[in-house]
Amino acid sequence: MDLSISHGQAQRLLKQRNLLAITATGLFALSVVLTLTAARRDREVVLQPVLAKPLTLSSSHVDKDYLELVTRDAALLTLNRSPSNLQYWMDSILEITDPRTHGRMKAELMKIFNEQSGSNVSQFFTIENLSVDPDALTSEVNGVLHTVVGSKEVTSEARTFRYVWSYSGVSLKLAGFGRITKDAAGKVIGRASANNSTDGGDE
Fold first, then answer.
1. Residue 123 belongs to what domain range?
2. Domain total in the chain
3. How would you class 156 by CB atoms within 10 Å of its CB: exposed for 0-12, middle for 13-18, buried for 19 or more?
4. Is residue 54 part of a domain?
5. pTM for the predicted model, two decimal places
6. Neighbours of 129 (CB within 10 A)
7. Strand segments (E) across 134-201
8. Contact assessment for residue 126 and residue 83, using Cβ atoms and an 8 Å cutoff
9. Rounded distance, CA 75 to CA 82, Å?
10. Contacts of 152 by beta carbon, 8 Å cutoff, 6+ apart
11. What φ, ψ does residue 124 adopt, rounded to 5°?
């Protein structure tokens, strides 16, 4: 009788163990499937800035409107500076810089920092036109660059700047920027780097 009871209990425990093993295997398989599905699926983030319409970010591509907004802010950040805000200016640019170009960017910005620190020369940029190419991850900004010495504006020149971006996941980072020169047909014929002009960083 005891043997029969023990055998019955053993059978129940065996069934419970098998059921638990099957359940665990099923959950593991489900988690693997969900992980692979999530990895292949494009990530999307919907932004609602103070604009007339919301923006949607996808890991598969850069939204044109989003690239325009980021370029506008980046242009205002990179092309407006004075001796009193050089440290903030440089730190802010490095925060949005692609880690892969961080060292080169910092070296170029440090040249400007050292040249302008202690001087009374400031510059500000007024944007007139902005164009972006989401496929090539580039932007161009046209406008007027104003140079001020003390409280007097000494130059006011039309300039075009190009911004190069990198995009990974839903993260847009600045890879480089610099002034470019175009001929009458719009073809690029030259560009200036940060260490020999006050126009911006190297592209």
1. 62-196
2. 1
3. exposed
4. no
5. 0.68
6. 9
7. 138-149, 152-168, 171-182, 188-192
8. no
9. 15
10. none
11. -145, 155
d(CA 31, CA 39): 12
Within-domain flag for 20 = no
Residue 13: both structure tokens together:
């425990």
Q: If we measure between CA atoms, which residue out of 137, 144, 129 comes closest to residue 72?
A: 129
Let me know if residue 21 belongs to a domain. Answer: no
**Rounded Cα distance, 100 and 120, in Å:** 33
Among all chains, which residue has been given the structure tokens 């999307």? 44
CATH number of 187's domain: 3.10.450.230
Residue with tokens 């660059």: 145
Compute the distance between CA of residue 74 and CA of residue 51 in angstroms, rounded to an integer: 18
Residue 191, in any domain of the structure: yes
Q: What is the pLDDT along the chain (203 residues), one digit of tens a residue?
A: 455 556 566 666 666 666 666 776 766 666 765 665 555 555 555 555 555 667 777 888 888 988 999 999 999 999 999 999 999 999 999 999 999 999 999 999 999 999 999 899 999 999 999 999 999 999 999 999 999 998 899 999 999 999 999 998 888 999 999 999 766 555 555 544 443 333 444 33
Instruction: Look up tokens 């001929």; give the residue.
Output: 183
